[in-house]
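At this stage, I wrote out one protein's amino acid sequence and its C-alpha cells, and that material follows here:
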Amino acid sequence: MKGNTQRGKTFSRRLRKSETDAEPKIWQQLRSRNLNGTKFRRQHPVGPYIVDFICINSKLIIELDGSQHQQQQEYDAKRSVFLEEAGYRVLRFWDNDVLLNTESVMQVIFETLRCPSP
C-alpha cells in the first residue's frame, strides 16, 4: 500500500506542474483558507484517484473538467461513484465555466460548504 501512496504523491506533484488554465484560477480562490476559512488541498490522492481539489474536513471534492472529459464520461461517473461511496460530495465544473463565470462557480462551492454533508 505504501508504494501506491508514494506513486500517488509523485503523480500529484507532476499534475500540479501541468495544470490547466482553469485550475490556478480556482486555486487562487481556495488556497490559504480564502473561502470562509476552509482548508483545501490540490491534486490530492483519494484511493486510486487524484482529485483536483479537496476539503477533507468538509468531505468536499471539486473536479474541473476540460474538453477531454466529453470522451471519458463513463470513467468520470465511475470515479464519482467511488468518491461518493468514500463519503465525499463531488462538484464538477467545466473549465470554460470556471474561466468565464468564476464568481458563479465560487458561489456554488460556498453554498455547498454551508450545507452539511448528508
About this structure: The mean pLDDT is 85. The first helix runs from residue 2 to 17. Helices lie at 2-17, 22-30, 73-85, 95-100, 102-114.
